[in-house]
Amino acid sequence: MVSRDQARTVAAAIPVLLVNAVAFIGQLAFLRAHLPWPLAGQLMMAAALESIAIYLAFHAHIAALASDSALRLRLASYGFAAVIAAMNYSHYAAPGWRPTFPAVAVGLMSASSPWLWAVHSRRMARDQMIAAGLIEGRALRLGVTRWLWHPLRATRVMWQATWTGTTDPQQAIAEWTASRATGTQAADLSADRAARLSGALAQTDGRTGPRTGLPGEGRTGPAALSEPVRQALPGPVPGDASGPVRPKAANRSGKPAANRSGKPATGRDAEEEFAAEIAAGQVPSLYQIRSRLHVGNERAKVLRQHIARQALTT
């Protein structure tokens, strides 16, 4: 019983054998007319000329199947084939190397032999590498109708599928649709958080007040805070009935305040003290900054702007 690989090898060998047979006969016919050797010598001469390129192509084929470098052997086979093709062409060309049908035909036969071997070798070597998982298979193929009516979407689906390795069209479209929805939601959330934090800063910059430091338009205390500002601030606002007020000396990090050693609190001190708020994208109130870092109102404003910038980039 002939296997599938054996049948493919036989089918691939037939064109190569026919090409080499025609090139061999062309060389032999010229040698019989111009080389006064015995027939055996003429046969060996024609066979030797046409077998050099085949020999090199054969070893390039073996190297390719063994996943070894075959470039030099393949280039050498192409070079020898070109030389033999020129010789075979010259046998049947008109004066001045003008082309004739026999000259072009036998020249092409000699030149194309190693190239045909290389086509078969690359195909077999690629099949082996795909089976071993060394290279990828074919890429995603979308129908002509999708490319015609949705060229932009088809391009984006193809762009993503070439990276993920998806080859099923329906799965690739579903993955692209899901990633698009996820990206849109993430962008909306980021824009909403940035707007809330920017709004909170816009309503507090440059204003002072007792305890909270966030008065508005002549009002002080929690009543001056709008609802967007309340949502942007972490935890309950001091003096607000919605929750208890933290003690002034509270310090979540457990470290002594930066300015207890006589040095003013820095932006790094604020980042360490309010790391949880920054990670959550929240901006603490001026009262929280003053009480936990033990700084004045003006310094608290500067540190609050620094914290807001860190929260926006998180």
Task: Characterise this structure.
- The protein is an all-alpha fold.
- The protein has three domains: 4-131; 144-189, no CATH class; 203-313, no CATH class.
- It contains twelve helices and no strands.
- The chain has helices at residues 4-34, 39-65, 71-92, 101-131, 144-149, 151-164, 169-202, 227-232, 267-273, 275-279, 286-293, 297-313.
- α1 packs antiparallel against α4 and α2 runs antiparallel to α3 (71-92).
- The chain is rod-shaped.
- The two termini are 67 Å apart.
Biggest sheet, open or closed, and with what strands and sense?
none
Tell me the number of strands. Answer: 0
The end-to-end span amounts to: 67 Å
State the oligomer.
Answer: single chain
Look at the helices and sheets and give the structural class: mainly alpha
Low-confidence stretches: 206-226, 232-258
Rg over CA atoms: 41 Å
